[in-house]
Design a protein that fits this description.
The protein has nine helices and eight strands. Strand 5, helix 6 and strand 6 form a beta-alpha-beta unit. The two termini are about 30 Å apart. It is globular. It has an eight-stranded parallel sheet with strand order 7-6-5-4-3-2-1-8. With about 230 residues, it is α/β, with parallel strands linked by helices. The chain binds pyridoxal-5'-phosphate. The site of pyridoxal-5'-phosphate has 13 residues, from strand 8 and helix 9.
Amino acid sequence: MTLIGANLQALRQRVAEVAKTCGRDASTVRLLAVSKTFGAETVADAYENGQRAFGENYVQEAVAKILRLRHLLIEWHFIGPIQSNKTIAIAEHFSWVHSVDRIRIAQRLSDARPSDLAPLQVCLQVNIGGESSKSGVAPQDVLSLARQISKLPRLMLRGLMTIPPASDEPAMQRAYFAQLRRLKDEVVNAGIVLDTLSMGMSNDLDSAIQEGSTLVRVGTAIFGKRQSK
Ligand SMILES: *Cc1c(COP(=O)(O)O)cnc(C)c1O
């Protein structure tokens, strides 16, 4: 088995163990392999080891990989900041977008989604820690944005995503993830169906699963350290 295969196996086991300790079924936590900065061969390695969903941050880099790996049944997720001049490429090449944080971008993605593809699956990125360095909608604006986006014809709103302030303390990590879970509950209680909490990365996935994550986005723990761009 390749190193990536071994990492994936260990990670699946980890996810299953953590899910079990908090009384959750492991199948309710999806694993998104974040392959930004890694090449198509590396993605193919993970694919051969059973991984099907991959996350990318940079449109140009991602589209090159997507085209090269056309022959594989990969589900591609866009998780990076969205510039308005990249919305067409994103709408044409991805199944999911986790980083929608304003109506203007959502409208453009809906307009650009090709009619022969299923609606684009969307999560709203929430700036849960209110950090000026991070993108994301403010918590108090989530419900109103969710209402607007749920009306767009070519998008399907699935849930909320966050990248909380960095912390090595499980209690701190859990407090942020719990906030996102409560926000999702609020939106659901207002009558908008959401089934996804996209939260947890290599360093905080245990805390995220304990707080109800349904999708963890993991790069380093699968592919190793990224070279800085
Ligand atoms: C890079 C990235 C990840 C993966 O982070 P790791 O710490 O390498 O697991 C997850 N989510 C987003 C939005 C990212 O940009």
